[in-house]
């Protein structure tokens, strides 16, 4: 048996494994790195997040990625060069965290790497009959593995598409295994660049679980701030949106995209919800002269309305449901206030801290759970294919040498 297979076999047999979960999201703010002690698998998965850091990306990284990110036309040579470059950079960032945490790389069983999405195009978006759904993450795991010396499991999304899903949201798998409850109906709401949710029925009945992207959370707001308020990256504490007035015609127009009329499950991204989308809506409503503050106030309300609409849709037949939020949007007070005001059945929106997971670390932890399933699980049945949750094992294994 090859020594790498033996090492994986030994990791899979262990009572507890150390898995580093990595997530680099659509906001391009940094690489989320979560050191997780994982035991068990399936519904018995236990996670202890021993350390968490977001390693900020510098302007050079953001510039390079933005050159190709969510663009239909870009320099294919640059894409080819970025694929290994991002993998090596993520590897160096992992080593930086390990040094900071004083953890030996030899003690880590595997890294679970999401990579960097540069393009996502479900059928509903590309409308080309010859093609199925597509998604592309760069930052190849071989480069992470060689850079760190740690076996790396990556490229989780392709199997989901191969098995009939849209390649996202994958959070549902970890949400179901780790956050299901027999005490309450739960909605796990993640508000990153794009918002998504997982509905977990109190019955924990896998066939009743569903998950979907909702629409933009921060992505258009961030793009607007980066365009008009550089060097700011986002509207910290909603300071700018708070100074503006909501423009109703623009708001109504922003809500018109056909994505919002599609049934769950569905996915989207900054390929659709971007500054061009805003510009089109402003042109249609003759609101190009609005102040930046009014635009931000309107965008903030727009994100909140679409998020609230999805929560209300999930909970309309339920006596009670508890929402646990995560992702950077929880730090945007105006967004949170709007969502709460638009969901009259909710008394509060909790965050995943209440369930033992730092809300900023949640997505990185989810990839650690997927890697744990790849290694030591695999018998769990999830929902059904029609709900975009096929029963599959995700991730490809890269060895260090
Ligand atoms: N204090 C704050 N005030 C307002 N917004 C904030 C604050 N802190 C973070 N954010 C928002 O959260 C964003 C980052 O969120 P997060 O890291 O969850 O996104 P992501 O993981 O990159 O996205 P996705 O989940 O869509 O891939 C920032 O770009 C910003 O818009
Ligand atoms: C293609 C892609 O990278 N999608 C991301 C993005 O960010 C949020 C939302 O859009 C979600 O669908 C997904 O990430 C999370 C981690 C997921 O798959 O659950």
Instruction: Characterize the overall form.
Output: globular
The biggest beta sheet is recorded as:
7 strands, mixed
Radius of gyration: 20 Å
State the total count of DSSP E strands: 12
Q: Uncertain spans, ≥5 residues at pLDDT below 50? A: none
Q: Determine the number of helices (DSSP H or I, runs of at least 4 residues).
A: 13
Summarize the structure.
With 401 residues, the protein is α/β, with parallel strands linked by helices. It has 13 helices and 12 strands.
Describe this structure in words.
This protein has two domains: 3-167 and 361-398, Nucleotidyltransferase, domain 5 (2-Layer Sandwich), CATH 3.30.420; 171-355, ATPase, nucleotide binding domain (Nucleotidyltransferase, domain 5, 2-Layer Sandwich), CATH 3.30.420.40. 37% of the residues lie in helices and 20% in strands. Strand 2 (30-39) and strand 3 form a beta hairpin. The chain starts with a helix and ends with a strand. By secondary structure, the chain is an alpha/beta fold. The mean pLDDT is 96. Residues 25-27, 29, 190, 192-194, 218, 222, 234-238, 327-329, 331-332, 363 line the site of adenosine-5'-triphosphate.
């Amino acid at each position: 048996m090859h020594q790498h297979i033996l090492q994986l076999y030994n990791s899979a047999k262990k009572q507890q494994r150390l898995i580093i979960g990595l997530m680099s999201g659509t906001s391009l703010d940094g690489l989320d790195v979560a050191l997780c002690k994982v035991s068990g698998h399936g519904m018995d998965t236990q996670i202890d997040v021993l350390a968490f850091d977001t390693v900020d990306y510098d302007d050079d990284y953001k510039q390079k990625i933005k050159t190709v990110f969510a663009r239909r036309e870009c320099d294919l040579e640059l894409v080819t060069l970025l694929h290994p470059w991002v993998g090596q950079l993520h590897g160096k960032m992992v080593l930086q965290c390990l040094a900071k945490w004083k953890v030996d790389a030899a003690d880590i069983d595997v890294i679970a790497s999401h990579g960097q999405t540069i393009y996502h195009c479900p059928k509903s978006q590309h409308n080309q009959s010859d093609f199925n759904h597509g998604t592309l993450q760069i930052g190849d795991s071989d480069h992470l593995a060689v850079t760190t010396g740690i076996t790396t499991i990556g490229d989780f999304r392709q199997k989901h598409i191969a098995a009939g899903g849209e390649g996202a949201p994958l959070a549902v798998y970890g949400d179901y295994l780790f956050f299901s409850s027999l005490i309450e109906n739960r909605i796990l709401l993640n508000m990153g660049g794009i918002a998504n949710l997982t509905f977990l029925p109190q019955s924990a009945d896998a066939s009743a679980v569903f998950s979907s992207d909702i629409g933009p959370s921060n992505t258009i707001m961030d793009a607007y701030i980066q365009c008009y308020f550089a060097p700011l990256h986002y509207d910290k504490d909603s300071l700018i949106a708070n100074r503006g007035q909501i423009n109703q015609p623009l708001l109504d127009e922003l809500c018109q995209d056909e994505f919002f009329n599609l049934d769950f499950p569905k996915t989207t991204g900054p390929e659709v919800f971007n500054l061009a989308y805003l510009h089109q809506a402003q042109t249609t409503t003759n609101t190009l002269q609005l102040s930046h503050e009014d635009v931000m106030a309107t965008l903030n309300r727009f994100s909140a309305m679409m998020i609230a609409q999805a929560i209300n849709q999930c909970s309309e037949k339920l006596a009670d449901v508890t929402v646990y939020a995560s992702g950077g949007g929880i730090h945007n007070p105006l967004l949170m206030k709007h969502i709460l005001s638009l969901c009259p059945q909710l008394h509060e929106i909790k965050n995943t801290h209440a369930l033992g997971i730092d809300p900023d670390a949640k997505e990185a932890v989810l990839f650690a759970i997927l890697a744990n399933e790849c290694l030591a699980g695999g018998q769990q049945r999830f929902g059904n294919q029609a709900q975009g949750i096929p029963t599959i094992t995700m991730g490809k294994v890269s060895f260090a040498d």
